[in-house]
Amino acid sequence: MARADTGPDFIEALARGLDVIKAFQPGRPVMSLTEVATATGLARPTARRILLTLQDLGYARAERGGFALTPRVLELGVTYVRSMGLWEVARPHLEHLVAQTNESSSIAQLDGSDIVYVARVAVPKIVTLSVQIGTRFPALQTSLGKVLLAALPPEEVERVLAEPSRSGIEPRWRPGAEEREAALRAVRARGWALTDEELALGIRSVAAPLRDGLGNVIAAVNVNAHAAETSVAKLTEEYLPLLLKTAGAISADWALYETVPQVTAS
């Protein structure tokens, strides 16, 4: 049904697509086709076509018998991050961490076999690869990605890594299945991850998980350094304790944020 009070240039199909994206409210990360159709007031065939189009474009994916949005929605703007409130919660902690280390710090989430950066506080240093909000890298070769992959069941890791990367990056480290699983087991055992020029020359980082109030990993946070300036020892002995403290503080604040009713004033 066409909307009332719209002009001749109004594109109904675009509006319906945005309605489908907005149907995924907090607490409803996965929705069935019927739920999406009900929430948007669209006919099931229309909702299905829109969801499949979003899936083809990389903005949605099939999950647990329904559909879920992907972090690629960030490419439409910062709506994805602000809808979570993650940036508002994490920003003061990231800024404090960067002030302590004089190194850049970022938060990323998993999108298929890639990570996508959703928050960042940077220092002006020359690095091999440029990073900004929405940048994606192959997950396995990054400390952020290792943390996120290690949080998945082993069979899910296989499925995720079978998806082709959309980053356009050719990583230096290409492990076999046995070496890869050993690396992820180590991350699970110690609770943090290290990468040493596995993605590209000069890039070295450590990362830790961010968790919700139920202990689920919702994202990962890192400290990124240039290999020519920062040794592995300095990264793990000096920066890692600060990073783990920061990750704990963000996770605690996020758990508190989840308990506060979010009210929008009319």
TrEMBL record:
GO molecular function: DNA binding; DNA-binding transcription factor activity
Entry protein name: Glycerol operon regulatory protein
Domain HTH iclR-type residues, every copy: 11-71
Parts forming coiled coils: none
Keywords: DNA-binding, Glycerol metabolism, Transcription, Transcription regulation
Annotated source species: Thermocatellispora tengchongensis
InterPro entries referenced in this protein's UniProt entry, alphabetically: GAF-like_dom_sf, HTH_MetabolicPath_Reg, Tscrpt_reg_IclR_C, Tscrpt_reg_IclR_N, WH-like_DNA-bd_sf, WH_DNA-bd_sf
Reported function: May be an activator protein for the gylABX operon.
Tree of life domain: Bacteria
SUPFAM superfamilies linked to this entry: GAF domain-like, Winged helix' DNA-binding domain
An individual GO BP term: negative regulation of DNA-templated transcription
Gene3D superfamilies in alphabetical order: 3.30.450.40, Winged helix-like DNA-binding domain superfamily/Winged helix DNA-binding domain
IclR-ED domain residues: 72-256
